[in-house]
TrEMBL record:
GO cellular component, one term: cytosol
Keywords from the named record: DNA-binding, Transcription, Transcription regulation
Family: Belongs to the LysR transcriptional regulatory family.
Keyword ATP-binding: no
Organism listed in the record: Romboutsia lituseburensis DSM 797
Superkingdom per UniProt: Bacteria
InterPro entries hit by this protein: HTH-type_LysR_regulators, LysR_HTH_N, LysR_subst-bd, WH-like_DNA-bd_sf, WH_DNA-bd_sf
Protein's recorded name: DNA-binding transcriptional regulator, LysR family
GO MF term set: DNA binding; DNA-binding transcription factor activity
Ranges of residues in domain HTH lysR-type: 1-58
Amino acid sequence: MDIKTLKYFLQICKDGSFSKASKNLYISQQGLSKAIGNLEKELNVPLFNRNSSGNELTKYGQYLQNKAISIVYQFDILDKGIKSMINENKVHLKIGVSFGVLNALSLDIINEFKILYPDIVLNIKEYTDFKCEEAVLNNKVDLGFAISHFDESLFNSRFVKSENLYAIVNKNHHLCNLKEMKFEDLKDEKIIINSNKSKLRHNFLIKCLENKFDPNIYIESDEMILIHDLSKRDEGIGISIDFAHTPTCKIRYIPFKDSTFTWDINMITKKNKIIASNLQAFIDYILEKTKTI
């Protein structure tokens, strides 16, 4: 008999059926039935009367239900208390991340840090680009992974990596055979791009203004997959990050001729913030790991 099986048993009592309990427990009905069958064998008594009207508790089942509620409750308190004691000895770092950054960095890097530094707990929260900067300024996070450009008078920053940006063009579009995309090529085109919460859109608008035109922002979406799908349907020309590419025969990814138009990831902290040793360890680890990315 173990706690997990007792919790299975109590869930069946609560739901009144094996099928409903198995769904709430996210296990197969066959697996649940086997676990209860093994419990009945161990106790050498039947816990349920199984009939066409459902599953009714036997007198043994009723007795076990009354005792199991207290046992499970006490165990959960014990488990929570021990975990709390363990966490007292750990340092928590609050990390803000702009949407898309975790995909660009790879979760393997974050997971490896957790293994190397088991006493440092990373509390990671994703934000839109501008909200990530706000979180750093308002001390909601210790460090943010932010997209260039930002106010250098407000933040200390360390460059992490750069991603290429592409114009996503349907193969039936008249611009599809270009080897490189110039901004002036997009002057009269329908543009599909991120919303105004995104630095990508902000930086794109700046480049268009430098080339003396206002782009026709036809569709805005913060869903990269949707931007690709709409470009595939020839609804317009999408602007996308390199790592978001999805293989397809219907669209081409055309790099921009302007090599300065990139999606640059930086680690930022509040200006003049004192960096604790654990946070510095995280910064140094990220910089070392991203040298080869």
